[in-house]
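Slide 14.
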Amino acid sequence: MSPPPAKLVHGRASKYLDRHFNRQAMKILPGEFYATAQDEVIVTVLGSCVAACLLDPIAMVGGMNHFMLPMKQGERDPDVFYAARYGVAAMEFLINNLLHLGAQRDRLVAKAFGGGRVMLGMTSDVGDQNIDFVRQFLRNENIPVWSEDLGGTHPRKVYFFPHTGQVLVKRIESTHNDTVLIRELTYLQEFNRAPMDGDVELFS
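Slide 15: predicted structure.
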């Protein structure tokens, strides 16, 4: 019998007590995903990356991924610790984890975020590629999109509450450093070195 799917990848994700919301929070980074049946919050910060939040509103099971590129060129990476950086694998892993926790596939709904044009020096727009991918994937899988906040030129901080489906999005209009940009560039550079790692509410 095969083991149950992993509930997160890479090991850099961290759980903490969010005192503002008074509940446990899981912060995920690029290439990670997390699914839960608990009343907690999942947090991430997005630049050109995209996060898909999936939810079974009847079972109150939900999760979020954070992927960097739509898919890997050539053969699929068999290593989950690297494959989840890509949208194709990140979506499959997240869906499988939700089903393992009691969700039903025909009840899944989605909210999608990110894909900002934050890396202006890139020859191709990674954000647009990620947006096109997540929209097409959800259409192909017949998963309704309840809401989205995609594109633009600013990074976002996203809080997802799986028990209710609520999402809070903070657009980072200005910053005194390039933390998000540097993080994404660092992770993108790792690709070449790694073995084959209901409504949206905007608030300030």
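Speaker note: The domain at 14-202 is CATH 3.30.1330.200 (60s Ribosomal Protein L30; Chain: A;).
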